[in-house]
Amino acid sequence: MRQPDIEIYLKDAEQQAVTDWLGQALGPCTPWQQKGQTFKCRAGDIPVTWLPKAVGKWHSLYLESDATPWADDLACAQAACAALGVEVRCAPGGWQEEESDEQADRWLRISAEGVEEITWRTG
Fold this sequence. Notes:
This protein is of the alpha+beta class. It has one domain (7-119). The chain has 3 helices and 8 strands, in the order βαββββαβαββ. The protein has helices at residues 15-26, 73-84, 101-104; strands at residues 6-11, 33-35, 38-43, 46-55, 58-63, 88-90, 106-111, 114-119. It has an 8-stranded antiparallel beta sheet. β2 and β3 form a beta hairpin. The longest helix has 12 residues, at 15-26. The protein is globular. The N and C termini lie far apart (28 Å).
């Protein structure tokens, strides 16, 4: 089932490299507009939010649309890992507010070695 939006976390990724990748995958990016700690742009028709160092060395990339080439966070994370050569993390499925903290700490780590489920305490 297609997720309504996509959020992945990229380790040590350069914003310009991410911009170039989004431009290839989704369409040309508008210039980034900084609002506080976050940066926003549009890649093709998709609103994008970039939050540098959202969790330690990890940058958040949020795509506010279900019209991306990827059905879910994992597919996007795998594409980002392949294109950018960085480790990427994402939630194993859609996140629900009523989930337990234990469930919220379950993440997928995507790297050159493949996909692995991990516990990542972000809170």
